[in-house]
Amino acid sequence: MSTLAPRRNSRRTFLATSAAAGGGLILAGTRASGAVQGANDRVRIAVAGLNGRGKAHLSGWLGQKNVEIAYVIDPDANVLAKTLKNLEGKEAAKNVKGVADVREALDDPSLDAISVATPNHWHSLITIWAAQAGKHVYVEKPMSHDIAEGRVAVAAQEKYGVVVQHGTQRRSNSGIAGLHEALHTGKLPKLKIAYGYCCKPRGGIGVAKPEAPPKNLDWNLWKGPAEIDQYHDNYVHYDWHWFWPTGNGDLNNQGTHQLDVARWAIDPDQTHPIRTTAVGGRFKWDDQGETPNTMFSVAEYPNGQMVMFDVRNVNYDGYERQVYNEYYLEDGSRIVGEGNYKIYRPGSDQAEPLSLPQGDVTPGGNWGSFISAVRAGDPGMANGNALDAHYGCVLGHVMNNSYRLGEPAPVESIEFANDDATEHFERLHAIMRDGVGLSDADTRYTVGPTLEFDPGSERFTGNRADQANALLQDPQRKGFEIPAADKV
């Protein structure tokens, strides 16, 4: 067996795997291949999606020893041509091929891995196709665009034994891992609330009229599984984030990083939250975007621990950027920082340094750790595996689903059953009121229902369950369907 082929047994026991895919399995035109034969541990990788994060992927892989860029993939011919031009003269990309359709690369039996930096609605489908083809996967966050397809991606990884690593780079930070190990082993007081912030300055996107797609864009391939009636240029190439058929808002865009860290801090025997509520809106911009630019969410786990999260993506003079995590402990302490930490003891407003041992991660950063896992054929070496990715993404999906079922309500009527949640929402609103000029009298927030969620079945129960379960999986276009988890 090649040193690059998936192994049956992981060095860690938390991720069950099986043998690599055999030949002959067909899904939407993609045939699974057998074990890849590497040359001196060389890893041949394809990069799908060449704007934004795709550029970072190319840079990351070019910085790794004995890694070859075998394919670059994008449905925009102009973007593809520009990328190929930029790769000229680079030894690691001297034989690179440019293609529009990811399936062409996956059909190459000499390809070892694929790096996915496409829009969100493609992430799970490429991960599933790649696993079926016996290819390892580095997939940008969020791994899934909805709850159901994330579970299928996990099933595909488990069945075919490939390495799947999520693009949540903080999973490669040994300092963050060390804090979480201390929380989990009782070296610190028990965690009460894991808090995340995704507060980056952004502006509106205006209104783009429907028109014919540009000739350089293969619109059919760009849409892939997403059902979209008409093209407009707010989709391509970044603002698709703010439309539900293609994106997940900033909660599961930038916020996926902080959501993942927050869920990582929760006790390791907890999988999904059992209830969640979200309150927010799209204020100030008056544009055609659909996702909220302001949102407060709270999720409760079976053991009573909670995740709370702020999204605040407007901009104004004096805007405070907040993209980080905080930890509230049951003894009244609060921990701040990222990798290196300080702690506020109960009743004190003075932070003290918090010295902790480094945690267990595969070394090499997010790029190097993935290549090491691929060379070892060991899914357990992934810093942020498919199952961890699924748990973190679902946390954001259930929050978004509450918001999507919400109704407008005045500020003064909004109160949570949990006093901590009420306090934090009021803090967020005060920032919006004083910074953007939202008035207490006239502002209407979209207030989502409290949704009950069953971690075992990964379905909603109780109030509004039928409507919430309708959001478990997006509509899919013919030829780009997500299979059932037991059919991968």
Architecture of the largest domain, according to CATH?
2-Layer Sandwich
Low-pLDDT runs: 1-39
Largest sheet: 12 strands, mixed
Structural class: alpha/beta
Number of H- or I-type helical stretches: 12
Strands, count = 20
Q: Please tell me the total number of domains.
A: 2
**How much beta, percentage-wise?**
15-25%
Under CATH, the topology of the largest domain is which? Dihydrodipicolinate Reductase, domain 2
Structural summary, described in words:
The longest helix is centred in the C-terminal third of the chain and has 19 residues, at 386-404. The chain is 27% helix and 20% strand. Mean pLDDT is 92; it is low at 1-39. Strands 9, 10, 11, 12, 13, 14, 15, 16, 17, 18, 19 and 20 form a twelve-stranded mixed sheet that branches. Strands 5-4-3-6-7-8 form a six-stranded parallel sheet, sandwiched between helices. A two-stranded antiparallel sheet has the order 1-2. It has two domains: 26-171 and 365-385, 3-Layer(aba) Sandwich (Rossmann fold), CATH 3.40.50.720; 174-360 and 390-480, 2-Layer Sandwich (Dihydrodipicolinate Reductase, domain 2). The chain has 488 residues and is an alpha/beta fold. The protein has helices at residues 53-62, 77-87, 102-106, 123-132, 147-160, 174-185, 219-223, 255-265, 365-376, 386-404, 419-436, 465-469, and strands spanning 26-27, 30-31, 43-48, 67-73, 97-99, 113-116, 136-139, 164-166, 191-199, 275-281, 294-300, 306-312, 322-329, 334-338, 340-344, 351-354, 407-410, 444-447, 451-454, 459-461.
Topology:
Elements: E1 26-27, E2 30-31, E3 43-48, H1 53-62, E4 67-73, H2 77-87, E5 97-99, H3 102-106, E6 113-116, H4 123-132, E7 136-139, H5 147-160, E8 164-166, H6 174-185, E9 191-199, H7 219-223, H8 255-265, E10 275-281, E11 294-300, E12 306-312, E13 322-329, E14 334-338, E15 340-344, E16 351-354, H9 365-376, H10 386-404, E17 407-410, H11 419-436, E18 444-447, E19 451-454, E20 459-461, H12 465-469
Parallel strand pairs: 3-4, 3-6, 4-5, 6-7, 7-8, 9-12
Antiparallel strand pairs: 1-2, 9-13, 10-11, 10-18, 10-19, 11-12, 13-14, 14-15, 15-16, 17-18, 19-20
